[in-house]
Design brief:
heterodimer; A: 101 residues; mainly alpha; Helix Hairpins; 3 helices; B: 194 residues; Four Helix Bundle (Hemerythrin (Met), subunit A); 8 helices; extended
Chain lengths: 101, 194
């Protein structure tokens, strides 16, 4: 008995589902950011696993770029979040509905 | 055998940590369990022989991203419980499952259809330079030949994101939010005494 590619892909799918559940369930913007991080990490696991089992380094390269994108997303997103909190004193998603007809 | 035990142990730990992050109402619990989950995920990278990726995961996520979140949370009221407008949990769960399945099929379909051959096989550096230094050297060789332009573009993107973050959150940095509310409270107290 050994760990195959399928096991890693199933784990990646489960973690991705947890993250997506968070995106659907949460209305707090900070928690939405956490859920996006979880989803990005799930994809990273899948990339590294395929890289190992196909003997190709491209998967790891893409994982590196995903990490870089996640880091810059956090920097800009958190800046916007702080700005929104200063202006409206809340970070609830429903407070963003300013275009109500 | 060791690999199997480690895989299931870390799979259990990662899934439970991320579940806590998604479910809990306390922002501090969510932050710390997310940090723990990130470290547990790096264990998978070490198991998969991607040592450099595992080290980067620990440094970037628990070092940089979590510190950024911790500093960001100083702006928000992180002690009190998060008030959220309730959503329908059954609908949420069903939507999650269906969309995740669709995404899996979309990504798996071309893999099943085509025979994939490795264009950058593992151990490339050893063939090229005759030394065996493992994963880090392989990553370096591929990153600075084939992926040099995306690497530089990613560096510029990180610089832009850094400047954007500083500009966005640096506005009115000299006026503290808690100080403002303290002053308001002081004024109200003075009114009461008068």
């Amino acid at each position: 008995m050994s760990i195959t590619l399928n096991d890693y892909l199933i784990l990646s799918t489960i973690i991705f589902m947890i993250g997506m559940f968070g995106v659907f369930k949460r209305t707090n913007l900070l928690m939405l950011f956490f859920s996006t991080e979880i989803m990005l990490n799930a994809v990273n696991i899948g990339m590294a696993a395929i890289s190992k089992f196909h003997g190709d380094l491209t998967g790891q390269m893409f994982a590196f770029f995903i990490i870089a994108i996640a880091a810059s997303e956090v920097a800009v997103g958190l800046g916007l979040l702080v700005l929104w909190y200063k202006k409206h004193n809340t970070i609830d998603l429903t407070s963003l509905q300013s275009m109500k007809g | 055998m060791f690999e199997v035990v480690a895989f299931y142990l870390f799979a259990f730990l990662t899934i439970s940590m991320f579940s806590i992050t998604v479910i809990t109402k306390n922002a501090l619990y969510a932050l710390s369990s997310l940090a723990a989950g990130m470290i547990f995920i790096s264990a998978f990278f070490f198991l998969l022989g991607a040592e450099f990726l595992g080290a980067v995961q620990i440094v970037v996520y628990t070092g940089a991203v979590m510190a950024l979140y911790a500093f960001g949370m100083m702006f928000f009221d992180s002690i009190k419980e998060i008030k959220e407008t309730p959503t329908n949990p059954r609908l949420t769960f069903m939507l999650t499952g269906i969309i995740a399945l669709i995404i899996v099929f979309i990504f798996v379909a071309p893999i099943i259809g085509a025979n994939i051959t490795a264009s950058y096989p593992l151990g490339m550096a050893a063939d090229l330079y005759g030394t065996i230094d493992g994963n880090t050297q392989d990553v370096g060789v591929v990153l600075f030949t084939k992926y040099l332009v995306p690497f530089e573009v990613a560096a510029v993107m990180l610089l832009v994101a850094m400047i954007g973050g500083i500009v966005l959150s640096g506005k009115k940095m000299d006026v503290s939010l808690s100080e403002q509310s303290d002053k308001k409270q002081d004024i109200e107290k003075m009114k009461d005494t008068i």
